[in-house]
From TrEMBL:
It comes from Tepidanaerobacter acetatoxydans (strain DSM 21804 / JCM 16047 / Re1). InterPro entries: Bact_solute-bd_prot1, SBP. Coiled coil: none annotated. It holds the Pfam family SBP_bac_1. This is Extracellular solute-binding protein family 1.
Length: 429
């Protein structure tokens, strides 16, 4: 009995082990089959700055993207503007950067020099939205090597704000040329309270940091082809036409005195304050100032494109784009995200929330944008809107050289010719 029992017990154990092995193998195969049927979830990191950190619009857009693209999940990090460029450059060179980020055209030389940006030409060939982008933007955004590294996103175009009531008081019409601008500027500069002192000036000049953009509208409208460099690579700032146009700019302060006496040191806050206080009848800026202007003046504020010179018009374009970094392991998914941001529905929501100018032609035709007088001024200015040269010299040129040299010229310490020679050399050294 005992021997038979042992044989019987052993047989049962063996059968149980075999059953367990067979069942285990079956479970393993089922799990493998299930895993193989699932697509990998790609995670992307996107960095950006926000003019208004409390604005939830971008977070809402990303949430919608993640919900409609379950196999691509984007994580967003918002970084303050003052720290953004430095942190981004350090992270990219250190190998810890994001997959995609907000970007400025003028940053291209240093990032491309680090071989950090991914060319988008091949992706753009297949992107259906390419032809809806405003006509000249692809040319403006193309880098000198023939590649496009950026996807259009935000846009502002400089134009002239003015006070219609002030124009009506002196019988002034909107100037079409810089010569006409000077003539009405003389009329608009006056003593309004009879105390023998001028208290209303025509134009809020920006002589300090950031004034290079409105200044260029005076200069490049007088230069053939409206460019900083001619076909032979010579800087046009030393052309006789450019020096003469610069003389007019300087004389608004030195000779004609149609700008506030503080113009030499006036920056952004000062020129906007001068305009809002009634001290100036005109000022150059873009649409991001329009809400404040309307709050201040209601209907008594309007806009027109910067005046023309003998060779047409030139105005400065403010930009923010999106880019993909070569370090990403998921370039296709990264392009799906940044191109989705540039599609019509997303651009429309972003521009309505933030007041930016839509970069798409189909949106510019919408009544919502066409009925906004400041959007109209922006649209009218876009065909001749450009950015400053994109090279390694321009950071110092913009931040230091232009304001320091211009202030010397306004104060009469150097001539217009000398000013332009210094600025030309700074662009090309």
């Amino acid at each position: 009995m005992k021997k038979g029992y042992k044989k019987y017990f052993s047989l049962i154990v063996i059968l149980l082990l075999l059953t367990s092995l067979i069942t285990g193998c079956g479970d393993t195969n089922t799990a493998d089959s299930s895993d193989q049927g699932k697509e990998e979830i790609v995670k992307l990191k996107h960095w950006l700055w926000l003019d208004d950190p409390n604005d939830p619009t971008f977070s809402q857009l990303v949430e919608e993207f993640n919900n409609t693209h379950p196999n691509i999940q984007v994580e967003v990090e918002v970084i303050g503007w003052n720290d953004f460029h430095t942190k981004l450059l350090n992270s990219v060179t250190g190998g810890s950067g994001p997959d995609t980020s907000s970007f400025k055209l003028t940053w291209q030389p240093e990032f491309i020099g680090q071989d950090a940006l991914m060319p988008l030409n091949d992706f753009l060939k297949e992107w259906p939205g390419k032809d809806d982008v405003a006509e000249n933007l692809w040319d403006v955004m193309e880098y000198e090597d023939g590649n496009n590294y950026v996807m259009p996103w935000e846009l502002q175009v400089l134009y002239m704000y003015y006070r219609p009531s002030m124009f009506e008081e002196v019988g002034a019409e909107i100037p079409d040329t810089w010569d006409e601008f000077l003539e009405i500027a003389k009329k608009l500069t006056k003593d309004t309270d009879g105390d023998g002192k001028v208290d209303q000036y025509a134009f809020a000049m920006r002589g300090a940091r950031g004034g290079h953009e409105p200044w260029a509208s005076f200069i490049l409208s007088n230069v053939p082809e409206n460019t900083f460099f001619d076909d032979e690579g010579n800087c046009t700032l030393t052309y006789p036409e450019a020096i003469e146009a610069n003389e007019l700019f300087l004389d608004l302060y030195k000779k004609y005195k149609v700008v506030p006496p503080t113009a030499v040191a006036d920056g952004f806050n000062e020129i906007i304050t001068n305009f809002k206080s009634g001290k100036a009848a005109m000022v150059i800026h873009h649409i991001k100032s329009s809400n404040g202007m309307i709050e201040q003046f209601g209907d008594d504020v309007d806009a027109f494109p910067v005046p023309a010179g003998p060779h047409g018009r030139w105005t400065s374009m403010g930009d923010t784009e999106n880019v993909i970094y070569k370090s990403t392991k998921h370039p296709q998914e990264a392009f799906i995200f940044v191109s989705w941001l540039s599609e019509k529905e997303q651009i429309e929501r972003w521009c309505k929330a933030t007041g930016n100018v839509p970069v798409l032609k189909s949106l510019q035709d919408q009544d919502y944008f066409k009925e906004n007088r400041f959007m109209v001024a922006s649209f009218e200015s876009m065909p001749y809107a450009h950015v400053f040269p994109i090279n390694e010299n321009m950071g110092e040129w913009i931040e230091s050289l232009w304001p320091a040299t211009t202030q010397q010229a306004l104060e009469g310490k150097i001539s217009s010719k000398k000013m332009m020679e210094i600025l030309a050399e700074g662009m090309t050294k």
